[in-house]
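Researcher: I'd like a candidate sequence for this fold, 284 residues long. If you have to choose between options at a position, lean toward the conservative one.
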């Protein structure tokens, strides 16, 4: 895809208020591509910025769904860089395959999106004050219940089909806990280079997810596996014991390989993960 296409798309994002002038400059300066491969036989979709009431305030989010009919819902938890153009594109692409997709701003308590000053090029230490307050089971499950209830209030969401949820980086545990918060509603969970899936605490995300009936797709980054090589075994053993279908694999990509604006974006691994995700959601 040509640089002019990327430039025009990023200008559109800026015009719609999805990136700031500073972020726009950082994206162009880094030569980051925001355009994902097109969906074959894509369905027509409708998208909008929405607000969702939660027990702790009002969350800003992006909702995109097929223009006609109903579809299974999917809740997307972004990585630490938050709700931004790359995740809107990821959500839209999924909707074009036939899903009603909600991408949330997990940091809504502190700041509306965009929350990362330089997008995915933002230094992590700058974002930790946003991330740390929501790194607990109580907050994540409270949000998960609110977002799931909101999805179920939408006319485009099929109530006779289960909900899917997927998370990236810190969003991985949030996806696990979405299933735990809504065990009768969530049927599939995906984590891509998720951080903090396993801990020794009784409310560890992997233990909470194992008390559900959801099928799982867990794609682990190569450097995360090097750091915690036993985690994949713990995950496999846990879900084998619970009897849940769980595809657990270490990918060659580094932590953060999926979003197209990531500095370590790895297209072949990202497309493999995308293919496996669509297979998972066939169970909904």
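Model: Candidate sequence:
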């Amino acid at each position: 895809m040509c640089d002019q296409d990327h430039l025009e798309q990023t200008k559109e994002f800026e015009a719609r208020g999805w990136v700031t002038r500073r972020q726009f400059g950082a994206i162009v300066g880094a030569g980051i591509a925001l355009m994902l491969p097109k969906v074959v036989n894509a369905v027509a979709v409708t998208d909008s910025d929405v607000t969702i009431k939660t027990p702790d305030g009002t969350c800003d989010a992006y909702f995109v769904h097929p223009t006609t009919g109903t579809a299974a819902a999917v809740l997307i938890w972004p990585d630490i860089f938050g709700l931004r153009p790359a995740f809107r594109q990821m959500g839209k692409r999924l909707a074009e395959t036939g899903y009603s997709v909600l991408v949330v701003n997990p940091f809504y308590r502190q700041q509306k999106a965009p929350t990362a000053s330089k997008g995915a090029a933002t230094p992590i230490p700058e974002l930790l004050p946003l991330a740390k307050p929501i790194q607990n089971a109580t907050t994540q499950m409270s949000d998960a219940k609110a977002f799931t209830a909101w999805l179920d209030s939408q006319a485009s969401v099929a109530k006779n089909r289960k909900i899917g949820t997927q998370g990236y980086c810190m969003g991985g545990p949030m996806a696990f806990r979405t299933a735990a918060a809504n065990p009768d509603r969530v049927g599939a969970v995906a984590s891509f280079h998720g951080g903090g899936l396993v801990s020794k605490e009784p409310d560890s995300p992997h233990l909470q997810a194992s008390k559900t009936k959801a099928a799982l797709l867990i794609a682990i980054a190569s450097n995360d596996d090097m750091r915690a090589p036993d985690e994949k075994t713990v995950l496999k053993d846990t879900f084998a014991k619970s009897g849940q279908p769980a595809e657990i694999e270490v990918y060659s990509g580094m932590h953060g390989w999926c979003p197209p604006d990531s500095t370590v974006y790895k297209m072949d691994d990202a497309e493999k993960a995308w293919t496996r995700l669509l297979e998972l959601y066939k169970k909904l």
